């Protein structure tokens, strides 16, 4: 099991990503084809378009990754591929290509859960021992989980409606932030973070704390989205805004939304910490929080989570931005973690299939109102 080379393939959403990692955990090469600019133009991800682009990119991305590492597929020990959760059409492209390579070169396949990979990749560059708490925030997901081992996860809570990145993207579009040239190439979340940093008076906009009287660790972002839309429409009317114009208070409204999302994330994370403490799931002196997913790139959110961790005695970890967003490296890394523990190394491909919806571990906390 030593001297392994693990090849990772990720296609669960709108990024075609590959990477090769050796048994020491050293990254030999990576390659990523992002579709985000194309989807930005379409106003959101169209599954057929995403599938088409994955089909077009998968082979060149695999080739490029092999070339950069100066190895051939024959040198690879095992292939790791995302099979769940994600867009079914996108997942299918990665799975089919991985199965094709597996048959052609006689390599075992290691099935990967996309969210587990997000939660584990922080261990690639920093020594973070189990157990730890993880907050995964992206355009498609929002969850809190306890990571107890490479394939041992306990779900503490998740969003009951949309994900924070999805709300940032929708609000940014409604606000027409893309009409500002500075923001035109940015994701909604990035644009909102940048606009918010220029705010002067965010408190003119009031937004509620979601699920304030729920004692669980679930999230809800739809109320903040609707609340922001209402403020936006009111200001557009007030100023007689034209179709392609922004409201003058746009920076303040971005900041109000970012602050409200942050408050909610911090509140639920604090709740998860309390739960872990009363259940003695994490040692009080060695609490660790790993934040990842595209929204974790947000420095305002990260700063406020850091303050929470300082207060509760937790150590906080965040992978570099490139590893927070979707990528092939985290799939290869998860493949290596499984390879080291001889977990899920599959040779009979007939048993492998994609699963669009797949919770991360069992749910520890029932949804209760108090
Ligand atoms: O993890 P990711 O690449 O893809 C998935 O959604 O799985 O995350 C993309 C999301 C987008 O919704 C984007 O708006 C958000 O992450 N995002 C941010 C920032 N950078 C990216 N949200 C807030 N602040 C940022 N700086
Ligand atoms: Zn993701």
Helix content: 40-55%
Q: Any idea what the radius of gyration is?
A: 21 Å
How many helices?
Answer: 11
Strand tally: 11
- Could you tell me the strand content as a percent range? 15-25%
Q: Flag low-confidence runs.
A: none
The ligands found in this model are: 5'-O-[(R)-(carboxyoxy)(hydroxy)phosphoryl]adenosine, zinc ion
Strand order of the largest sheet: 10-9-6-7-8-11
Termini separation comes to 51 Å
Structural class: alpha/beta
Q: Averaging pLDDT over every residue, what do you get? A: 94
The geometry reads as globular
Major beta sheet, specifics? 6 strands, mixed
Order of helices and strands: EEEHHEHEHEEEHHHHEHEHHE
Could you characterize what this model shows?
The chain has 370 residues and is α/β, with parallel strands linked by helices. The protein has helices spanning 36-42, 47-69, 88-105, 114-120, 164-174, 188-196, 222-238, 250-278, 299-312, 321-324, 329-340; strands at 5-10, 15-22, 27-34, 78-84, 109-113, 132-137, 142-149, 152-158, 288-292, 315-317, 362-363. The chain has a six-stranded mixed β-sheet with strand order 10-9-6-7-8-11, with helices on both faces. The N and C termini lie far apart (51 Å). Zinc ion is lined by residues 114, 118, 138, 293, 326. The site of 5'-O-[(R)-(carboxyoxy)(hydroxy)phosphoryl]adenosine has 20 residues, from α5 and α6. It catalyses: L-threonylcarbamoyladenylate + adenosine(37) in tRNA = N(6)-L-threonylcarbamoyladenosine(37) in tRNA + AMP + H(+).
């Amino acid at each position: 099991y030593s001297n392994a080379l693990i090849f990772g393939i990720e296609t669960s959403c709108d990024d075609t990503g590959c990477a090769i990692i050796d048994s020491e955990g050293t990254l030999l090469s990576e390659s990523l084809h992002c579709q985000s600019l194309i989807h930005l133009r379409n106003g959101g991800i169209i599954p057929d378009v995403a599938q088409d682009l994955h089909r077009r990119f998968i082979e060149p991305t695999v080739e490029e990754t092999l070339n950069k590492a100066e190895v051939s597929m024959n040198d690879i020990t095992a292939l790791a591929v995302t099979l769940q959760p994600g867009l079914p059409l996108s997942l299918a492209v990665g799975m089919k290509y991985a199965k094709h390579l597996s048959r052609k070169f006689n390599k075992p396949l290691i099935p990967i859960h996309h969210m587990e990979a997000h939660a584990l990749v922080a261990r690639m560059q920093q020594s973070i021992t189990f157990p730890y708490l993880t907050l995964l925030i992206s355009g498609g997901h929002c969850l809190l989980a306890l990571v107890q081992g490479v394939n041992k996860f306990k779900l503490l809570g998740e969003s009951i409606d949309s994900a924070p990145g999805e709300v940032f993207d929708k609000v940014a579009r409604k606000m027409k932030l893309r009409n500002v040239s500075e923001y035109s190439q940015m994701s909604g979340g990035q644009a909102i973070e940048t606009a918010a940093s220029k705010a002067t008076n965010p408190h003119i906009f009031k937004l509620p704390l979601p699920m304030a009287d729920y004692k669980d660790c679930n999230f809800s972002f739809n109320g903040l989205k609707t609340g922001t839309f209402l403020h936006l429409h009111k200001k557009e009317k007030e100023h007689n805004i034209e179709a392609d114009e922004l409201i003058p208070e746009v920076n303040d409204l971005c900041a109000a939304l970012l602050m409200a999302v942050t408050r909610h994330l911090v509140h639920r994370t604090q709740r998860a910490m309390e739960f872990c403490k009363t259940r003695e799931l994490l040692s009080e002196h060695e609490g660790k929080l790993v934040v990842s997913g595209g929204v974790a790139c947000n420095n305002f959110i990260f700063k406020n989570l850091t303050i929470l961790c300082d207060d509760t005695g937790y150590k906080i970890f965040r992978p570099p931005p490139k590893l927070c967003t979707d990528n092939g490296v985290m799939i290869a890394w998860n493949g290596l973690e499984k390879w080291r523990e001889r977990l899920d190394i599959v040779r009979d491909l007939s048993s492998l299939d994609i699963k669009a919806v797949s919770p991360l571990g069992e749910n520890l906390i029932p949804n209760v109102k108090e």
